[in-house]
Each structure stands twice: as C-alpha cells, then as structure tokens.
Amino acid sequence: MDGFLCFNKPCGPSSFQIIHKLRKALGIKKIGHAGTLDPHATGLLVIAVGNATRLLQYIPNEPKVYRFSIQFGTETDTLDSEGKTTRSGGSLPEPQQLIQCIDTFKGEILQAPPQFSAVKTDGVRAYSRARSGEQFSLPPRPVFIYSLNLLHYNETEGQALLEVQCSGGTYVRSLVRDIASSLHTYGFASSIHRVSSGTFTLNHALTTETLENAGKYIMPIAEIFSERLKVQVTERQKMQLSHGMDIIISENTDSGIVFAFSGDNILAVLQKKEGTTYHPVTVFHTEG
Question: What does each C-alpha distance from 283 to 54, 139, 228, 234, 259 come to in angstroms?
Fold first, then answer.
C-alpha cells in the first residue's frame, strides 16, 4: 500500500495524533507527513503511505496557501489563541493602514520563528525552552511571500481575515506578530487554515469522519509527479537500477532529479550525474 493522501485536519489533535489514527485505520506503520500543523490549526496535511515516505523530500508541495485570522490589540506567548495573554490594550488599525502594511510583506522577507516552535536551538526544541520560562531569541531566516491578501476586516473588533501564498518554512504566527508590530500594536493568530500545498488540495480530502475508508483516498505515486519528470525504463535498465548502477536516459530532460518507472511502479529516484547519465539515489525493490 504505497501512495499519498490528503487529510483535512480538525482543530485539536496534533499532526502526530493524526498519523497514529491513520496507522490504525490502514494497518500500516510506515506513514509520514509533509509539513506539520499546530494542534489549533486546521486544514491540509499531506500524508505519505508505505514506500511513498521515501519520496517526501521530492513531492511538489510548494507554495503553501493559508487562510488565517488576526486578532489585533492583544498578544499571547504562543502567538495563537492557545497561549497566555502577554500584552493587551493595543490599538486597532484602520483599514487603509492594514492594506498598506501587508503590501510590505510581499517577496523575500526575514522572519524569526515563534519561541513556541519545534525549531532547535543548541540542540533543544524552542518550545521546551519557552515553557521553562527561559528568555531567548531565535535568529531570523529568509522566507518568500508570493501573495498576501486581505479578505475581510472588522475594524470595530480588530479582526482581520487574510490569505497568504508562501514558501515552506514560513510561520503564519510569526507573520501575524510582524504585521501587528509594523502597525505599532499587538496581535495573535486566532485561526490558521492550510488550504493547499503545491499540487495537493483539500478536494476529496480524508476527514476524521471518513477515516475508516482511508484506503480509498490513497493516490498512486505515479499520479503525483509531473510527466516531464517521469521516465519509463527498459528491463535491462530495471536490472541495472536494482544493483545501484547508473543508466543512460534517452528522454530529453534538463531536470537534475527524475523518477524511474516501470509502468505505474516507481523503481528509483535518479540524480543527474553528467550529460544523459543518471545515478539512482533511492531504489525501490520490487518483485519480478
């Protein structure tokens, strides 16, 4: 049972708890996900099953799209609705101020992860240091914001609904913090919903209500990758790949990584060596 499925995560359970439920539903231990969601966040989790877990680093799962809400005037230690209030009484921005502000967050920006995050500092998870009350800072790192749009704003309540298309590694909670700071006020993410991740969407996504039918939602590996990145190999090349040998690809491709198939069965991930010579960096052992 190899392939990918999309799961529409509800608010509450962690990504790991969802994986645990899927392992029980599918009767298979080899399951992983491409990008976690915080427990209070909802939406798309891309799940890999069986041998597909070895392909997670190659799947087309960027850019990511999130729809999120900001509550202005208050800040929490976790930068979401689950945390303790650390500052309050901040001003509520005017609509035009907010529109002008979000325009400055497009393109490449430097972003410091939240202190309550899984980022490691000195070998320790940041959230562990934050929970112990330690004072520390995390260095900013570059992320890319492809688009950021204001969908709705209730000026009276200071509540904004936005949608962002961004690179992997972007923290929506940090984006909320930085938008509020730029407006000289406070804010936290009152909701975060992942809409899509690359070519993966919530259309036909598995839910907790349909968990018992999880097997029917698995997409074959061959459906995930673009046709231009897939090559069909001969029986001789199939044997060569099984022994970790380089092969010559006759198809015209300029990609550094391609995927070798025999029919719909993936045989290997190939990395360009030179010219038309490719080396197998990941080999899937199949019968026959």
Answer: 10, 37, 20, 15, 10
